[in-house]
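Design a sequence for this backbone.
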C-alpha cells in the first residue's frame, strides 16, 4: 500500500482505491490484471490464481472471527 499512488486503474481489474482488497493490517493489497504485466507492477512479486487464494486464506488476509459471523 505504500506505492498505492503508482496504481494505474486503467490497467487492472480493480477500478479505484475503494475496490482494493486489503490485508487485515491494511498494509498490502492484491491487484489483478490480464495479459502483459502493467509497467507499474514490473519487479513486484506475482502469484498465480491458486497461489494467491492460499495466501488470502491466511490469517494475514482473513479475519476468522468475521468469517464466523
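Sequence:
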Amino acid at each position: 500500500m505504500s506505492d498505492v499512488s503508482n496504481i494505474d486503474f486503467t490497467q487492472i481489474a480493480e477500478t479505484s482505491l475503494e475496490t482494493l482488497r486489503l490485508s487485515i493490517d491494511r498494509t498490502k493489497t492484491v491487484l489483478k490484471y490480464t495479459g502483459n504485466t502493467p509497467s507499474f507492477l514490473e519487479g513486484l512479486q506475482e502469484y498465480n490464481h491458486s497461489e494467491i487464494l492460499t495466501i488470502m486464506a491466511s490469517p494475514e488476509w482473513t479475519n476468522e472471527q468475521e468469517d464466523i459471523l
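The chain has one domain: 4-68.
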